[in-house]
Design a protein that fits this description.
Elements: E1 7-11, H1 16-27, E2 31-36, H2 40-52, E3 57-61, H3 67-81, E4 86-89, H4 104-132, E5 135-139, H5 143-146, H6 151-171, E6 176-182, H7 195-204, H8 213-224, E7 235-238
Parallel strand pairs: 1-2, 1-4, 2-3, 4-5, 5-6, 6-7
Length: 245
């Protein structure tokens, strides 16, 4: 196990990809702090399951778009476990609103959570990460690379891609910073799709299916691990071949 004795902070860790990421790090021996905003029951459920399996886990309620709350949550993790080795910026929201209908409030809400939240968490975690020569992994999206139909979401993820490269440059050599860019993942975010819609999308993916959350989690764990010790500033696309054309 590659993360025995290490501490990992996962934002948006109570559901979907975040839950899978938290579980994957715990399976590798890490103590995992899960940050949630609204879904308390899900986050506490993840923590209870990890503890039942003999892992160390903690759930913290916070709005990652608020600097004071971010500073507080990082402080709680340090107080609890005296160190921080990995930050995973996974917290995010998706609004499927076309350009003509996007309000400024909605636009700001998406960017505040998805992009500003990642910056604030990195800013707060840097002192502890630098001390441990740690790692940051951002969960971006292929929409941040090729665009999409939801302008606020695509812009926020595009900003995260650039933020990843900027932080990798400015925090080297003490902290590595990378990102994963998933496409279609089998989570609640895609639960609105009909069977016909899912089949049509899957037919456009060379591997013929949606990703499982655990497959994204494995990519995140790899980027944070010693196996990726010479990798920084990279965006690992995990999309079943969808965007290779």
């Amino acid at each position: 196990m590659e993360f025995i004795g290490k501490v990992v902070l996962v934002t948006g860790g109570g559901r979907g990809i975040g839950r899978a990421i938290a579980a994957a790090f715990a399976q590798e021996g890490a103590a995992v702090a899960i940050v949630y905003h609204e879904h308390a029951a899900e986050a506490q459920g993840v923590v209870q399951a990890l503890r039942k399996a003999g892992r160390r886990a903690l759930a913290i309620q916070a709005d990652v778009a608020r600097a004071s709350e971010v500073q507080h949550l990082v402080g709680l993790v340090i107080d609890q476990w005296k160190r921080l080795d990995v930050l995973v910026n996974n917290a995010g929201i998706l609004r499927r609103t076309p350009l003509e209908e996007v309000t400024l409030k909605e636009w700001q809400e998406v960017l505040d959570t998805n992009l500003t939240g990642a910056m604030l968490c990195a800013q707060a975690a840097v002192p502890a990460l630098r001390e441990r020569r740690g790692s940051i992994v951002n969960v971006a999206s292929i929409r941040g690379l090729i665009g999409g139909t939801s302008p606020a979401y695509a812009a926020s993820k595009g900003g995260m891609v650039t933020l990843t490269k900027t932080l990798a440059r400015t925090l080297a050599p003490h902290i590595r910073v990378n990102a994963v860019a998933p496409a279609f993942v089998d989570t609640d975010l895609n639960a609105h799709l009909t069977v016909a819609q899912r089949e049509k999308i899957a037919g456009q993916i060379p591997l013929g299916r949606f990703a499982e959350p655990e497959e994204i989690a494995k990519a995140v764990v790899f980027l944070a691990s010693p196996r990726a010790a010479y990798i920084t500033g990279q965006i690992l696309v995990v999309d079943g071949g969808l965007t290779m054309w």
